[in-house]
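for the writeup, i need someone to sanity check this before i put it in the appendix. the sequnce is what the collaborator sent (i think, or maybe the updated version? ugh). structure was predicted straight from it, no edits. if anything looks off just tell me and ill rerun, i have time this weekend
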Amino acid sequence: QVQLVESGGGLVEAGGSLRLSCAASARTFGFAVMAWFRQTPGKEREFVAALNWSGGSPIYADSVKGRFTISRDNAKGTMYLQMNSLSPEDTAVYYCAARYGSTSPDHLLYDYWGQGTQVTVST
């Protein structure tokens, strides 16, 4: 089965930055779309950002526009989420996801998921 491995989470002060990484186990990274979601206890899984692997413009949730940047490294088969100007509202478990379709904010459309990485932003 396909495995997605996430890293980069941790504890950061408000206003600080973190970069999350997501790598796939496949030798050749063939997913059409990779995305980031986040979730806190008692809340629905929330869309963060998504990117077509072959190109095009990424999409972002309004809550992270201007602060977060999604990117990819084709040679490494790795996706990144650069998070700047973090606030306590960004505290959540962040999940890497992938699918073979097109970019979408609907988590139900994604087929593969990482284990999640905790991001905690202190005041």
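The CA atoms of residues 32 and 39 lie 23 Å apart. The radius of gyration is 13 Å.
thx in advance!!
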